[in-house]
Design a protein that fits this description.
The structure holds two protein chains of two kinds. By secondary structure, chain A is of the alpha+beta class. Chain A is 38% helix and 23% strand. Chain A has helices at 15-40, 85-89, 99-111, 114-125, 144-150, and strands spanning 60-70, 73-80, 133-142, 155-164. Chain A has a four-stranded antiparallel β-sheet with strand order 2-1-3-4. Chain B has helices at 4-16, 23-26, 29-54, 71-75, 80-101, 105-122, 133-143, 156-193, 204-216, 223-228, 230-245, 257-275, 280-290, 301-307, 311-336. Chain B folds into two domains: 19-299, no CATH class; 303-337. Chain B is mainly alpha-helical. Classes of the chains: A alpha+beta, B mainly alpha. At the A-B interface, helix 1, helix 3 and helix 5 of A face helix 7, helix 8 and helix 9 of B.
C-alpha cells in the first residue's frame, strides 16, 4: 500500500507521484522556454526562456530610432534613441523595454511583413499615449566598441519617417 | 563498444545526479524547523515587495496593454487608474494577511494571487517583467505545502511533502539560472563555430557592455574600466557562464546551495556595477531561499569540494582510475620480467 501525504493539497496522491509531477513541470518549463526562444521567437507569459545576453554582439546590422518631435517638444537634430532616457523616466519605464520592439519593426519592414510591422509600430507608438510623436526608423550597421569610442555608426539608412498622435 | 571503465564512470556520474532523498532530512526536527522558518520569511518579506510595487510610478505610465491574467479589466470595463489601484491595494492587503495566515493554504493562495496579478500588471506595458517572475513561481509552489505549523505529530510523508515543495521552489529558481547559462554556452559554441567574437573571447565582456550601456542609458561604475581593460573582464565572464549553467546541480548536491547563492549574489551585484542592471527582487529571494536552506547538511571544505560539479567528480574518480591504470601496468610489466 502506498503512503499518503496527509495535509497535502492532493491527499490521495503519494509523495512519489507529487515528486514526479514536480520534475515534469520543471522539465516542461525548460522545454517550453527553449522552444519559445529558438522556434516561436517570442515570450509567452508566464514562461520565459531566460535567454539574456546569450550571444556577444559583434559588428552587426540593427535598428534604432531618432526622435524629432514628442508632444510640444521638437528636437533638431533629432534625439538619438540612446539619448532619450529622460523621456522614458517620465513614464516610469526603461528604454530597454522598447529595443526589441524597434528591432521587430525594422526587421518586419525589411522583410516586407506589413502586418507584423503595423502591429509592432502600434505598440511602439502607444508608449507615449496620444502625444504627437515623430521619429525616423533607421537601419544601422555598427560595431559596439567603435560606437562606444566614437559615437558613430558604420552606415545609416532611413527606413521612413513616421508620425502618430496628431 | 565502450570501454568498461568509461561505462562505469558514466554510470557513477548518472548516479550522482539522482533526485536527493528527502527521507533522512524529514526525520530531523532541526531541518523541519529550518524549512518552516524559510517559508515563513518568504511571507514576512512579501509585504516589503508589495510596498515597493505600491510606490511605483503608476500614474505616469501611458501604454497600458493588459495581458491575459488581467482578463477582468476588460470584463468589467475598468480604467487604467482603477486597475492599478485595485491591484496595488490588494497586493499590500493580501501580503499582510499572508504574514499572519501563511500556515493556512488560503493565506498562501491569496499571496500567490496577489503576486501573480501584480506581476501581470507590471508586464502589461509592452513586455513581461523579469524581476518578479520567481516570486510568483515560488509563491505558486508554496500553495501546495501541507500545514506543518500547527501539526506537531505530522507523519513522515507529510514532512517529506513539505520539504518536497521547498525543494521545488528552490529548484525553479536554480533552473532559471541554468537556463540562462545554457543559452550563453550554446551561444558561445555557435559563435565560435561561426568564427565570431564569442563568450570565451578576451573582448567578449567589453562588447557586451558597449552594446548594452547605450541602450540602457545609465551609468555603470565599472563599464569604462572593463572596456579599457578587457583582460580583467575575461575570467568573470567565462566563470559566470559555468556558474549559471551548473546552478541546478546544487539541487542534487545540496551542500553547495549557500556557496552558489553567494556566487549568484556576486553575479547580480557585479552585473549592476558593470552593466547597470538591477535584479533587486531576485537578490532578496536568493538570500531568503538559500542562506537558511534546510538542505545544507555537512558544510566542511572537503564535502564542498567533493560536491562541486566536474571538479568533485575528478577528485573522486581520477584516483580510482589511476589505481586501475597503475595496477594493469604493474601486471603487464611483471608478466614480461
Amino acid at each position: 500500500m502506498h503512503a499518503q501525504s496527509a495535509g497535502a493539497i492532493f491527499p490521495r496522491m503519494t509523495y512519489e507521484a507529487q515528486k514526479r509531477i514536480i520534475l515534469i513541470v520543471l522539465a516542461l518549463y525548460f522545454c517550453i522556454g527553449l522552444y519559445d526562444n529558438y522556434f516561436y521567437g517570442n515570450e509567452r507569459y508566464p514562461v520565459f526562456s531566460w535567454s539574456l545576453f546569450s550571444t556577444i554582439p559583434n559588428e552587426k546590422t540593427t535598428y534604432t530610432v531618432a526622435i524629432s518631435r514628442l508632444g510640444v517638444n521638437t528636437y533638431t537634430p533629432a534625439l538619438r534613441f540612446d539619448e532619450s532616457r529622460q523621456l522614458f523616466e517620465l513614464l516610469g519605464q526603461s528604454p530597454t523595454q522598447y529595443t526589441p520592439m524597434i528591432e521587430n519593426m525594422g526587421m518586419a519592414l525589411d522583410r516586407g511583413d506589413t502586418e507584423r510591422f503595423t502591429r509592432e509600430k502600434k505598440r511602439f507608438e502607444h508608449m507615449f499615449g496620444n502625444a504627437a510623436f515623430t521619429y525616423d526608423l533607421l537601419r544601422v550597421r555598427y560595431d559596439p566598441l567603435e560606437y562606444w569610442q566614437h559615437q558613430s555608426f558604420i552606415s545609416t539608412t532611413s527606413l521612413g519617417v513616421f508620425t502618430s498622435g496628431l | 563498444m565502450m570501454h568498461p571503465l568509461i561505462l562505469q564512470y558514466v554510470g557513477r556520474v548518472a548516479n550522482t545526479i539522482r533526485f536527493p532523498s528527502l527521507t533522512l532530512f524529514a526525520a530531523d526536527d532541526a531541518v523541519m524547523e529550518k524549512a518552516r522558518t524559510l517559508v515563513s520569511y518568504f511571507y514576512y518579506l512579501a509585504p516589503f515587495g508589495a510596498f515597493l510595487f505600491f510606490t511605483g510610478m503608476w500614474a505616469t505610465k501611458q501604454n497600458f496593454d493588459p495581458i491575459w491574467p488581467l482578463w477582468w479589466v476588460q470584463q468589467f470595463d475598468l480604467s487604467y487608474e482603477a486597475t492599478y489601484n485595485i491591484v496595488r491595494f490588494a497586493f499590500v492587503i493580501c501580503t499582510l494577511i499572508g504574514v499572519l495566515a501563511h500556515p493556512y493554504r488560503i493565506g498562501r493562495l491569496l499571496v500567490f494571487f496577489a503576486f501573480w496579478q501584480a506581476h501581470a500588471l507590471e508586464s502589461s506595458f509592452g513586455g513581461p517583467n523579469h524581476q518578479w517572475y520567481l516570486w510568483v513561481y515560488v509563491a505558486a509552489f508554496f500553495v501546495f505545502l501541507p500545514n506543518l505549523w500547527h501539526q506537531h505529530d505530522a507523519s513522515r510523508d507529510t514532512r517529506r511533502t513539505f520539504l518536497l515543495y521547498v525543494w521545488a521552489a528552490q529548484a525553479i529558481m536554480m533552473l532559471m539560472y541554468t537556463m540562462a547559462g545554457f543559452h550563453k554556452l550554446l551561444g558561445t559554441a555557435m559563435q565560435y563555430l561561426a568564427g565570431e567574437i564569442h563568450g570565451f573571447s578576451m573582448h567578449a565582456f567589453a562588447y557586451q557592455i558597449a552594446d548594452w550601456i547605450p541602450k540602457l542609458q545609465r551609468e555603470a561604475v565599472l563599464a569604462p574600466f572593463i572596456i579599457a581593460h578587457p583582460e580583467w573582464g575575461w575570467f568573470p565572464y567565462v566563470a559566470i557562464q559555468f556558474i549559471q549553467f551548473f546552478s541546478l546541480w546544487v539541487m542534487v548536491r545540496m551542500s553547495l546551495q549557500k556557496v552558489w547563492a553567494v556566487l549568484l549574489l556576486v553575479f547580480h551585484i557585479g552585473t549592476f556595477m558593470v552593466m547597470g542592471i538591477e535584479f533587486n527582487p531576485l537578490l532578496i529571494l536568493v538570500i531568503v531561499m538559500f542562506f537558511h536552506s534546510p538542505f545544507l547538511g555537512d558544510q566542511s571544505i572537503k564535502r564542498l569540494l567533493y560536491d562541486l560539479p566536474v571538479v568533485g567528480q575528478l577528485l573522486i574518480y581520477l584516483p580510482l582510475l589511476w589505481e586501475k591504470v597503475r595496477g594493469s601496468v604493474i601486471r603487464t610489466t611483471s608478466r614480461y620480467s
